[in-house]
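From the shared-data thread, chain only:
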Amino acid sequence: MAEYNPILTAPQGANKKPKRVGRGSSSGLGTTAGKGNKGQQSRSGKGSPYVGFEGGQMPLYRRIAHKGFSNYPFKKEYVCINVELLDSKFNDGETVNKETLHAKGLISGKVLPLVKVLGNGDIKKKLTVAVDKVSETAKAKIEKAGGSVTVAEKKE
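Structure, as tokens:
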């Protein structure tokens, strides 16, 4: 264990004494204990109301009608990958699917996301593409380069 070195001390103002409130008027924090006079903030245990409280005004979550259907829990999000990226990351004759995209670091996550190939850029390599969705331009470019495209069957 290192010996005590008096040279190594905390800088000025680093260690403050704790604020002792309610210890008499001469302390400067007596009577109201630094909380001001009256009101909700000065009461013990009643410092802040519930989340969404608007001072007695009808809260926003109660003003807005919650009615009808929301598709949010069922929406599908696709990771979009352009053919120029496939051309730069894959070699001629390779297969492009979720597993190979994950292995090359183009998609991430414990659960592999849905993948859509878009037609931005050019492709000159012959690739076998098997993903969830492919745009028409991407499909045309891949097939023009001599590759093949298979789209995963829809589960509905």
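The CA atoms of residues 84 and 128 lie 15 Å apart.
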